[in-house]
Amino acid sequence: LDEFNRFIVKVTDSTMRLCFNILFYGGLRVGELLALTPSDFDSAAGTVRITKTYARLHRADHIHPPKTPKGNRTVSLPETICEMLRKHMDAMYCPGPDERLFTTISAEKIGRALKRCAAAAGVHEIRVHDLRHSHASLLISLGFSPLIIRDRLGHENIQTTLQVYSH
What we know:
With 167 residues, this protein is mainly alpha-helical. It is built from 8 helices and 5 strands; from the N terminus they run αααβββββααααα.
């Protein structure tokens, strides 16, 4: 959490800052983040529904179901991130309910920004997917059970959660 806090202040682009916050505090995979639409966000409940994942292959956009059936889930987000998400949607030009929220960025662009801002913050360089691992580590440090972490991350079985995070 300390390293993330030092890192996030170095992220000057508001869209990129929102993405990093959702990845860290929501535990989403980058493809799940890039597939989010306004209809996935429940402002009153402070949640996002994960029902799809985005990939760009052979210069074409593809939307697929999540990695596993358990990948379909609803994730709560801190109110500050919900407010950032509301502002992001307000800044978009009349987004349709099924229009992707993050069309101007890619997984590669997120990775480059992560590397650049981590260096500027003087923290360990990690991969984008490691923000998901950092999220799980944060939940463990806060005392959440492996079953709750499994459901939040969308793992199919508890063994996956325990094998990856038991250390």
